[in-house]
User: Fold these one by one.
Assistant:
Number 1:
Amino acid sequence: MKKEILVFIFDGYADWESAYICSELNGAETDYIVKTISIDKEPKVSMGGFRIIPDYSVIDHPKNFEMLLLIGGYAWSEQKNNAIKPVVEHAVQNHIHSSSNL
């Protein structure tokens, strides 16, 4: 079974930041599968106009994931992503790798 990597998305996320790394991590020859997480399961629109329906919300995400990627975007400086904090705290407390480009 492949290990899940969660990519946090939100309205206005910087889609280009996740494009390269996700294509590498999600390859058939890897042990990983990339899934998206957001504050809720409503569709999110990236800066580039991509409309994505998240796989998980902060309420129903799996507790056993391999990595959390926090993608950049204006919502961070506007304090609109605070609901992701419990997921980040879970990752830190459980020694799950996290990465951000904030």
Number 2:
Amino acid sequence: MKTIVCVDNRMGICFNGRRVSRDRIVSEDILEMTRGNVLWMAPEADKLFKEVFKAKEEVCQETGTGKKIQDAGYLEDEKMWKVDRNFLEKAEEEDFCFVEGENLAGYEGKITEIVLYKWNRDYPADVFFEVDLSKWRLEERKDFSGYSHEKITKEIYNRQGLL
């Protein structure tokens, strides 16, 4: 499975049961990256992607482009992700998993790719991303501007020796 995680400068993910931050441009990028694949997430994360999908649906209706959401490539009523409390168990090898506070310790052997979105800020956190990235090879790094973050860094890691 391919995991997607958003972290701060100290690899913090959550504080007091809530995500440390969010940005709709990141959600849009995740939907674009996972297009044509299965994207799993916990019920709490569903809202992030529903908001992006709804915004794209409204743009489609306003511009009169018909049933097709052309900039996303999806039908209005099509949902591109699956929501389940036990999504890490259900995810298959090529599936993507959006991880916010779930413990990955028992799943490291199942992970083939890690996508990190770095906020490039310090936030209070009590849940951290704890996968040892020294066993992974950085394949791609890209900086971009978010909606509420001046600079977001996207990094894609593959397990060393797999490629």
